[in-house]
Description:
By secondary structure, the protein is of the alpha+beta class. The chain folds into 2 domains: 276 residues, Glycosyltransferase, CATH 1.50.10.10; 79 residues, no CATH class. It is 42% helix and 12% strand. It has a 5-stranded antiparallel β-sheet with strand order 1-9-10-11-14. A 4-stranded mixed β-sheet has the order 7-8-12-13. The chain has a 3-stranded antiparallel β-sheet with strand order 2-3-4. Helix 3 runs antiparallel to helix 4 and helix 5 packs across helix 7. The longest helix is centred in the middle third of the chain and has 28 residues. It is globular, with a radius of gyration of 23 Å. The termini are far apart.
Amino acid sequence: MLWDLTLTPGEEKIIDVATPLHAHDAQPIPRDVAHQRATSIAYWRKIVDHIDIDIPAAHDLVDTARANVAYNLLGRDGPAIRGGARNYRRSWIRDGSLTSTMLLRFGLGDEVRDYIRWFAPYQFADGKIPCCVDSRGADPVNEHDSHGEFIYLVAEHARLTGDLSLAREVWPHVEKAAEYIDALRHQTSGEFKGLLPPSISHEGYSAKPMHSYWDDFFALRGLKDAAWLAEQLGNRDAAVRFATSRDEFARDFHASILRAIETHHIDYIPGAADLGDFDPTSTTIGIEPGGDLANLPHDAVIHEFERAWNESLARMEGRRAWKDYTPYELRQVGTFIHLEWRDRAQRLLNFFLDDRRPAGWKQWAEVAAQNYRSPTYLGDIPHLWVGSDFARSFIDMLAYERESDDALVLGAGVPASWLDDGVRVRGLRTIYGPLNFSARRDGKRIGVSISGVRVPRGGIVLQLPGVGERVVRKLPVTLELTR
């Protein structure tokens, strides 16, 4: 399509284009395009506004999160959640599980329920969860992250909706997947004892399968969630069985990390036990959703993400030559928040925001190039899993659950500049119920209000800038914090 336009400075010209999306779409081309557009906008706002997030100083972030919720819904094929519409037309359970967490946070539980019901029957007879499913059926390739991801997905639906009926319905699939993980961990020996066998789930190991810690982080998450689900469903025998498997696997896995650090003479957690490779984007999974930060070697974690920060900073400041990168690195924003690196998280996020393309569409490609006009591989645009990585990190800035002490942490990623006009959240889904939270600065005081959720065992931990840390034990509460 081509339009020949001449515009004076500041002049605007609007061209309306309407086209059927499918051969069977017999609707007439609307004459009143403005009305049709307004109707579509109202429809999507109703969907993405299940929760209310109002941050005047960060409205672009809020809009980008909402846009990526909508993109992920648009990218589905029926109930199947996908990573994209072209390259990623298949449904990978790794994409689907973490994207589902984003949808659940935004109150979209029905879509996740439908996805779980659609995916579960593709499980193999031995309990193996396929890495992905397409029109031909389940893919038989061994990618050992998938089993833990499926169990995590079912548990996450139960935790964030408070509804156990779906978990009860698909429990046979969960149980078989957990038993499959348990069988896999008994297949390794020697220096890799207790780990999952080599796989190519990590794209960097597609040439040769490796003992990928990416797989092991998800396996540990899956065994923890299988034990939790069994207990919630009243299946005491299964709860004990999977808790034992969880503890044994955790012991072997954590011992392997220490052994790999010593063997490869490194000061960080590698991506694979075999290689000793530096891969912080993979390690983020152990922190969120893995919830394993408190059990990982502290110095190794700090060294790894200090190096990741310094490399990112060199790229941002032009001190490091680079051609392109994958915005999967957006996960590191959430990790920095969990490490209480508020300022670094904000600066890193701002760098990623500049690589949304096309400008104004609030989306990322799978690959972002320094010279964005150069011809290069881009993957899908929007890349839906990348979009969900952003949205989950953005939510972590406002609220996240800390598994180590069963606490809800609020405001850990909120910069001081947001507080001038205030931060307000209503209905954000957490495992402790829908959260209502607001904070606003008035002079040297910050007014805070919290309600809706139940107070977890570790309390509600406020980590707002300039006021230190405050633990709340009783709700609802309105506080005046002095800087």
